[in-house]
Amino acid sequence: AKVIFPSISFHFLAPRSPSRFDPLHCNTRQILGRSESTHPCLKPLPSQAMPKPREQGHVRIVYLLIALWSFSLVLMFMAHLKQGCSEATDSTAEDHQPLLPGVKRAADICIVGAGLSGAVIAERYANKLKQSVLVMEKRDHIGGNCYDYIDEETGIRVSKYGAHLFHTKYKRVWEYVQRFADWIPYEHEVLAYIDEKHVPVPVNIDTVNTLFGLDIKTQAEMDDWLEKEQVPYPEPKNSEEMALSRVGKRLYEMLFKPYTIKQWAKTPAELGPEVMARIPVRNDYDARYFPNDAYQALPKGGYTGIFERMFDHPLIEVQTNTDYFEVRSSLQCGRTYFSGPIDAYFAHLGWPKLEYRSLDFERKVVRNVDYFQPKSVVNHPSADVDFTRIVEYKHFPIAGSSPHTVLFYERSKDNGDPYYPVPNPENQALYARYQAMAEKEKDITFVGRLANYKYFNMDQTVKNA
């Protein structure tokens, strides 16, 4: 109260003695630190001027109420000021004006696509080079095909575009991704359902023993069996020759050929040898899908959280639901990174489109059951069913707990979001034409699997970016 009303004399604060200052002639500033003998204001009051006890009490209550009221006003003002500052900060950090055709927008770096390639490049430019970055994403979310979320009905973390397993042999890549998440070690295993039996994929000793009723025990015995089965092709020209040269006719007809036809809508003979070359064949009992990668793990909080942290920088602006081709004439970019399909960038040329395979996902909830299948991913190569595999995310250590489970049946198709480049000579020749045009573009770099028309694992995408 003294601070707020310095001119008011608070006589109830005076010492309890016969000496009283005259509130009509003196104020608090005048008497602080002065004694009665040295200040005229501290003269004794006549007895009849002394306030009565009840009157003195009323005055004290009034002054106390004034002080409390004043203090409450100060608190209200400070709270309002703090809220205003907070709202201003949030608006600055999160709210960006949407990109509109004809409205100019400038940035040091423009990135098309908020997937893994775009996120790495944006994060590096902002944190390392301190340059402004504008990221444009056509979908309504960040994360590209890595995007995951919590299934509302079951509470299980699932991926919108199929299972993603992080694995790498590159220490540099592993150290980089650890900046954005806590990781849980996880070594992936896959089964195939053939003739009402679950067998490991890639092929190993257990696969052969289960399918053919054998009793192979050692690596040497497995090598002998494979050698007898294999069909020699010194230089395989397509995936059929590659598979026959590695596993022989029986496993090819039972597993590799029917699955390939469903996945690619082409026979292995119509695909380049690199498709089957990616599938290993083991001479031991190792059932791990990626046995040669030293670092294998899943992000504890899911993949989407990684992208949120990578984009969390004041120099990075992310615009979802934004078609780059609709706004690019309004952009002023020092350099642009394009991670979409390269043929989409050059659509104005009227050339044929590159061929991609897409996926369709059918969701199914199974209630009151621990697990539906023995592993997270079970392939179904048989032509008797139209789906290629079933993914049960509850098996993953980042899925969370639930009394139910949720399945996703995957079917391969021609139309839809591009997932897999179709590797054959015709597409490779067409891509070479697009690539030649890309090299002529000024201040633009084509990155990622769609722009390079090449399948990348997640670690390869990070390394490439």
Give me some keywords for this one.
465 residues; alpha/beta; 7-stranded mixed β-sheet
Question: What would you say this structure looks like, in words?
Answer:
This protein is 34% helix and 18% strand. With 465 residues, the chain is an alpha/beta fold. It has a seven-stranded mixed sheet with strand order 8-7-13-14-15-12-16. The protein starts with 27 loop residues before the first helix and ends with a helix. The model is unreliable at 10-50 and 84-94 (pLDDT under 50).
Query: How many strand segments?
Result: 17
Instruction: Enumerate the strands of the largest sheet in spatial order, edge to edge or round the barrel.
Output: 8-7-13-14-15-12-16
Please compute the radius of gyration using only Cα atoms. Answer: 36 Å
Largest sheet: 7 strands, mixed
Which structural category fits the helices and strands?
Answer: alpha/beta
Gross morphology: globular
Given as residue ranges, the uncertain stretches (5+ residues, pLDDT < 50) are 10-50, 84-94
Tally of helical segments: 14
Protein topology:
Layout: H1 28-31, H2 53-94, E1 105-112, H3 116-128, E2 133-136, E3 148-150, E4 157-159, E5 166-168, H4 171-177, E6 183-185, E7 190-194, E8 197-201, H5 205-212, H6 219-229, H7 239-264, H8 274-277, E9 295-299, H9 303-311, E10 316-319, H10 324-327, E11 331-338, H11 342-345, E12 356-366, E13 377-379, E14 389-392, E15 405-413, E16 420-421, H12 425-438, E17 444-446, H13 448-452, H14 458-464
Parallel strand pairs: 1-2, 1-11, 2-10, 7-13, 11-17
Antiparallel strand pairs: 3-4, 5-9, 6-9, 7-8, 12-15, 12-16, 13-14, 14-15
